[in-house]
Write a structure and sequence with these properties.
This protein is of the alpha+beta class. It has 9 helices and 19 strands.
């Protein structure tokens, strides 16, 4: 009778173990469902959610760091047609995006509209010198007028240059070059980022994700339009993805992330590179691919971004994007810093450039469950173009069209320790705890089931032996 009780107890133990293991197995999809439901609820852009609080005002400090290109041989370029030699000087750092979104309006069609204020405050402690540092740079007024005027108007430009005592290069402070100064030739304010402070980016209208979380943050309209007006082509005028501050949750590393940048007047995509640890949080690093600014001969999709055969060598030049169509009264060409991924001819025309993947690529580190961007570095370079002229004195020695680097910018932000701890406490630790419970239940249940089953077999065999 004792043996029978022991066998019954072991069978009961095996059953209990199996039930516990099944419970652990059931908790896996159930737990995932709970996590997904919580993330989806908190990712909606509406008051009271975690996403909304982070969306209204950027929690992390956002900085714009500038490196300006100082020309070391301006007289040699003017007198002998020598290639310019430049030395980058920086960083000069400004804090940006510290003001909350304005004019937030919730629309009936599950979208929300807003304006993004532009602001920049100089950070001396994060800079190599004061804003009053002098830089020898390309004359923005002369280069801009040269790019806009046809060749038969060079006589007029030559007259204006002489009357204003201007030249191809000029000495200006960092502050003037970045934010604006009155040009003596054009008699108006010019600057690489003029106007900036006190202006707004947008009006943006984005999906709030309430009906479909896979669309949260996706831009529906920019400045009231669903497409861009710049490129005269349906494909290039598409507004794709988010503004890169966040993406829809449950990121799939096999798919690229799309985002729109008003700085370069177009949408781009970034591809998964690797997984990384950021303050104890796993993130996916996404990077801009070389094909983004490849020549149309390599990437046919870029054909509609090629607007001027003169500045792009009949659309064979890689690494630059002419955004003149979306910048008033100035010819601007955008590239990656130091012409990273650009045609060799760009770096051969201007000496002193040293492109580096580590320092000059654009990347975004995204937490895959929530889709939040926890660290990013948006790196772009602003260039202008000048070329030869038989009439304009300061350009008579110039041998070929030159894309000249003015400044490159690194707009960057990273998760701080306080936010990282909150993120881990509110999300990561809960997911880990649920996973531990699942594993303990599954492991313990299987162990009890196996142990009881083996013990039952041993006891039963022993009893049968004694019986016979």
């Amino acid at each position: 009778m004792g043996c029978c009780n022991k066998e019954c107890g072991l069978i009961a133990g095996a059953v209990i173990g199996a039930v516990v293991a099944i419970l652990g197995g059931v908790l896996i999809p159930l737990g995932n469902s709970i996590i997904e439901g919580t993330v989806e609820k908190e990712s909606v852009i509406e008051p009271g959610t975690t996403a909304y609080d982070n969306w209204v005002t950027t929690g992390a400090h956002v900085y714009r760091q500038f490196w300006l290109f100082d020309v070391k041989n301006p007289q040699e370029v003017l007198q002998y047609g020598a290639r310019p030699v430049v030395l980058e000087k920086g960083p000069y750092t400004y804090r940006t995006r510290y003001l909350p979104k304005e004019n937030i309006t919730f629309n009936p069609n599950q979208t929300v509209s807003f304006l993004l204020p532009s602001c920049a405050v100089f950070e001396p402690s994060m800079s190599v010198g004061p804003e009053e540092d002098n830089i020898t740079s390309l004359n923005l007024g002369v280069a801009g007028a040269y790019s806009l005027l046809p060749e038969n108007s060079h006589v007029i430009l030559e007259t204006l240059i002489k009357l204003s005592k201007s030249s191809l290069f000029q000495h200006r402070t960092v502050k003037d070059l970045l934010w604006g100064y009155t040009d003596p030739m054009l008699k108006k304010t010019v600057g690489v980022f003029y106007p900036y402070n006190g202006t707004f980016d947008g009006y943006y209208t984005v999906n709030n994700g309430k009906e479909d979380i896979s669309k949260v943050g996706i831009i529906d309209r920019w400045k009231g339009e669903r497409t861009l007006p710049f490129w005269n082509d349906t494909y290039c005028n598409m507004i794709n993805g988010t503004d890169a501050s966040s993406f829809p949750p449950f990121v799939d590393k096999k798919k690229p992330l799309y985002f729109f940048s008003s700085d370069i007047c177009r949408s781009v995509s970034a591809s998964y590179e690797k997984s990384m640890d950021l303050k104890g949080i796993e993130v996916y690093r996404y990077t801009l691919q070389p094909s983004t600014l490849a020549s149309p001969t390599v990437n046919p999709d870029n054909r509609c971004f090629c607007r001027d055969p003169k500045t792009t060598k009949n659309c064979t030049l890689a690494g630059v994007l002419d955004i003149s169509a979306c910048k008033e009264d100035i010819t601007i060409l955008i590239s990656l810093p130091h012409f990273l991924h650009g045609s060799p001819s760009l770096r051969e025309a201007v000496l002193g450039l040293n492109p580096s993947e580590e320092h000059h690529k654009t990347f975004i580190d995204v937490e895959p469950t929530t889709g939040f961007s926890l660290r990013f570095a948006k790196r772009i370079q602003v260039n202008m173009m000048y070329g030869p002229s038989k009439v304009i004195t300061v350009l008579k020695k110039v041998k070929d069209y030159t894309v000249f680097p003015i400044v490159w910018m690194n707009e960057t932000a990273a998760l701080d320790d306080e936010t990282a701890d909150m993120f881990k406490k509110e999300l990561i630790s809960r997911i880990q705890m649920l996973e531990i419970i699942q594993q303990v239940l599954l492991g313990t249940g299987l162990a009890v089931f196996a142990l009881c089953l083996i013990s039952y077999c041993v006891v039963r065999r022993s009893r049968l032996k004694r019986t016979f």
